Amino acid sequence: MSQTRKPTRGSSYTPAERRRIWDAYQQIAQRGPVNWSELGRVLEHHRQPLRRAVEQMIAEGGPPGEETPPVIVVPPVVEPEAEPEPVTFRDDLSSRKAAAELRDLKRRYDAALDELHEAEARFDAAIAVKEPVAPIEIPADPSIETNQAIAIVQASDWHVEERVDPSTVNGLNTYNPDIAQRRAANYFRNVLKLVRKERQSAHIDTLIWHLGGDMISNYLHEELEESNYLAPTEAIRFAKQLILGGLKLWKEDGEFKRIQVVTSYGNHGRMTHKPRFSTGHKNNLEWMMFHDLAFMFEGDEVVKFQIADGYFNYIKAFNKWLRFHHGDAMKYGGGIGGLTIPVLKFIARSNQQQWADADLFGHFHQLMPYSRVHRFAGNGSLIGINAYALRIGASPEEPLQSFHLVDSKYGFTISAPIIVNGVQE
Asked: How is domain 147-419 classified at the CATH fold level?
């Protein structure tokens, strides 16, 4: 590589050298801003003397020996790029705020689009509903299926001799033997009304009647010795008269081929201070009454009694095993779930001993229709609310008894209350 010449002043170059410098300068200037370092490398001269020589030639109008003024290429002035201003904390905060506002606007915009879409869908649905359509023809079936069915009715917690003064229950109820008799009469008549109504779509010739206990109040509580209208023996006789009257009505006017009476003695009928288990039936006035009634209908072709000495009484309705009991073996001390939870626990324990498809009980004075999920039914009462129930915080419930229908094909189908209050009450 040749040695770079010693720099000389612009006026020290020969005419030929000046011409050569000028031509090289013109070539570089045509491409853009003149890079003096590049010009020095091309001519192998230091850039400063070359720059002074070019500037002198520009001032003199060109290199020596030019007959006409040459076209002077003036390089554009390159302005230095301005340095960006530094981003401050306030600028960054403003930028974030603007970005947040933009996101919020987008969110609201998207929400508005969704609402508009839903509104259009509702409008389209409303228009579609108003459009006339041809009905789907459903032909009538003149041969409506009538399966065999069994009616199941419960009678429990009548407490026929007990006194309920309106003043002791805030005017919610009144009860005495006369009212008990009227309500019992309504009960027996309304059972037949329900059976006749269901006979329009089912063949019913069997009635299962659960005599579920606590037909009398007895002297179970000391205060009942003061307030009851009748002594225990008088009360059990009165209850027996009501039962006989009902059986007579059903047998003569009910058109039943069979009335199956299933019994459960209650806790109020016992003659001992505390409950007894193995001998509880022998010390219960209601159990004695059931046997007396069964003796009266011995040999009867329609009315049959099934009396259990133990707590449970099982009977089969078609392919369903039914378990009847009074209900006092189930303990309920209050709770958010109500009776359902303790009843289900009791049923689970009982099914470990002997399976049943449904449980029917009373005792709690609370009408609980049969449920296919829980598979039990709780009976109401004839007496209604009394001072004891009001004191323990029980919900007031009007006097009601339960009616169920078991279909030979579909199982439990109908659950209905048996109204016992008359219009005058």
From this structure: Purple Acid Phosphatase; chain A, domain 2 (3.60.21)
